[in-house]
Amino acid sequence: MEKVPNVPASDLYPPVQDEVSRLASSPGVRSAFERFRNDEAEFANWQLEATRIPAPPFGESPRSAWLAERFRDLGLTNVKVDEVGNVFGVRPGVAGPYVSLSAHIDTVFPSTTPLNIRQQGSRLYGPGVADNGAGIAAILAIASALNKTKVSHGMPFLFIGNVGEEGEGDLRGMRHVFSTPAWRDSIAYSVIIDGAGSDTVVAEALGSRRFEVIVRGPGGHSWSDFGAPNPIIVLGRAIEVFSQTPVPSSPKTTFNIGVIRGGTSVNSIPESASMRVDLRSTSTTEIDRLERALRLSLDQAATAENHVSAQRSSRKPHVHSQTVQTEVVEIGNRPAGELSRDARLFRVIRAVDTQLGNAAQVQRASTDANIPLSLGREAIAIGGGGSGGGAHTLQEWFDCNGRELGLKRILLTMLTLSGVGE
Ligand SMILES: [Zn+2]
User: Fold this and answer.
1) Which of 54, 211, 316, 360 minimizes the number of CB atoms within 10 Å of its CB?
2) CB–CB of 218/228 below 8 Å?
3) Which fold has domain 207-334?
4) pLDDT at 2
């Protein structure tokens, strides 16, 4: 996370600030704000209901179906679920491309996780209740308030509940949205709701690339086959070289070897060994450079081990020279990107925060916003209001107090971006 100074947006962008304050005092917006105060019980109920439906990576379809029904109940049009499980609903505007409002519906929890979702006072408990129960509740709350107050807007709103944000999902839901020309070419702004809170704006997409590196060899007995190339030694050599690759502190760039596996017993030359490598940077160029360094270290290590092995077996004429093979499998790829400080979306969210007296920090993180940002599109990820903690654990919680502020923030951002309709 990188913090930037909190410059009051009003000093920088008076026209946007004026638009926001005019909107905030309009009768339609004020009645929508009233709904946020009065309908909290309904929002919490949606959040509990959604979170009670298991949604592990690649198993989100029951939750997709539930969300599509809610979209229809709230008067959204053209409600549909696409082939990967993303749910769409439209609130028509006067004209123009879409302002999209999305929340990921998947969780990190396998389908066997006991959910035990419950409420005690203003607090909701259970896995996934904030990440991203809070996001799902927020987009439903916005749709509901717009539906009840009949506030009109210039650009149409596209509501999306997308699959595959977490871990192994690797942003597949949002990736699919932006690889579908009909959506890609019609979404002007992406507002992404992820988790609880109102105190952050993710405007910088942290890129990452992940690999499973596999080395295979002939294997053998530690005594009688000595000299056969050893995959664990290849990994060891590769790690020794790769871990000395210099990385810049700006743009911040990191690498990690997080898992290593291989071998069967102490007196066997392993037939295979593997490791999992995570490369991260705010710059795609740096990730590319690290990937090249990783592949080069591995090639050199394999060549060195094959060479040693060939020398040893040439001294034993009855042994055929055998070699190791390497394979590098990409298991994750999240592209990097950044929202310009001059972008309209950035100016709008800063002006909205000033209007609401909300202090928010600009952050860098890996979210669904990576996909549009990497394509040079305007996108931010913000919280659904309230507060929360224990994300990705069974002790996850969400507190509904303060949800109202988060919802006002989202609505004002959407309406300022779209302009008010006739
Ligand atoms: Zn999330």
Assistant:
1) 316
2) yes
3) Alpha-Beta Plaits (3.30.70)
4) 35
